[in-house]
Amino acid sequence: MKERNGDSSTERRGNGSGEPVIELKGVTKHFGSITAVEDVSFEIRRGEAVALLGDNGAGKSTIVKIISGVIAPDRGEILLEGSRVAFQSAKEGRAAGIATVYQDLGLVPTMNVWRNFFLGAEATKTSRLDVRRMRNETAHALAEIGLRNLTSVDQNVMRLSGGEQQALSIGRAVHFEQKLLVLDEPTAALSVKETDRVFEYIGLAKEKGLGVLLIMHNTANALLVAGKVIVMRHGKVAARYDLTGTHDDMLPTINAAISGVE
Ligand SMILES: Nc1ncnc2c1ncn2[C@@H]1O[C@H](COP(=O)(O)OP(=O)(O)OP(=O)(O)O)[C@@H](O)[C@H]1O
Ligand SMILES: [Mg+2]
After folding, report:
1. Ligand 1 atom 5: the closest Cα is on which residue?
2. pLDDT in the model for residue 44
């Protein structure tokens, strides 16, 4: 029986029911004399969205880079579905199931939609690119996530709006059954309407059982989809909130934690 725990916004936020997709334990990273991240531990479960919030320089993007394999931590460990991983590159992270969507990275603007969709996962047939299959699969997958306004999967990605580009990136993660979707400021450059759409896609990713790590400057927006909040300050976890079943307005509390006002 489906458990009900309150109003629709609480349900939308939802909590992961499954196993942890990823666990960080005591992760620490220095850049020279700067401690960007210190002793950070948290986990994200299947079907759960965790918002990582904090002021500029709090260490959020460094966490993203560590999780996705762009940089290695100095200390601590990362478990992906229970097994320890130590990625040497973003490519390795991607191959293991970590899909990272940056505000303006991850797509090649001068390539068309289907090439971008299959970037790094190209389908081949007798060692040649299976173009027909990739075009069809891309069109099908994008229609499934509601990107129906695309006139053609052959058009260049630079002609898509910011929201459509995000949708393409998220759709790609869902389609290739990645385990964790990491979004670093995915809506920073988007209109309100486009932002809403991105939230819908995040909801879809959760439904499909992906764990989601969401980084945002707008706390109110993050609370629309996140079941848990982790606040970072000066590289450390300053506060954690589990929003499942919470009916209180947590916005002032969380914003106070972000700015360090007790
Ligand atoms: N490659 C680097 N070399 C030196 N210092 C770095 C490097 N990357 C990050 N830092 C420093 O580490 C700290 C954390 O940076 P990070 O980018 O993780 O913050 P953030 O929370 O993502 O901030 P923002 O909200 O502005 O994106 C900052 O003091 C930053 O200057
Ligand atoms: Mg950042």
Report:
1. 31
2. 97
pLDDT tens for 219-249 read 998 998 999 999 999 999 999 999 987 777 8
Q: If you take atom 28 of ligand 1, which residue's CA is the nearest one? A: 57
d(CA 98, CA 240): 23
Ligand 1 contact via 34 beta carbon (within 6 Å): yes
How far does residue 146's CA lie from ligand 1's centre (Å)?
35
Question: 8-108+162-259: CATH homologous superfamily?
Answer: P-loop containing nucleotide triphosphate hydrolases (3.40.50.300)
Does residue 58 have its Cβ closer than 6 Å to ligand 1? yes
Task: Name the residue among 250, 229, 226 with its Cα closest to residue 238.
Answer: 229
pLDDT at 262: 62
CA distances from 130 to 113, 125, 136, 157, 247 (A): 15, 5, 10, 20, 51
Kindly state if the Cβ of 62 falls inside 6 Å of ligand 1.
yes
- Any atom of ligand 1 within 6 Å of the Cβ of 61: yes
Query: Does residue 60's CB lie within 6 angstroms of at least one atom of ligand 1?
Result: yes
What does each C-alpha distance from 201 to 13, 49, 171, 172, 179 come to in angstroms?
13, 12, 8, 11, 15
- Nearest Cα residue to atom 24 of ligand 1: 56
Q: What is the pLDDT of residues 181-199, one digit of tens each?
A: 999 888 877 788 888 888 8
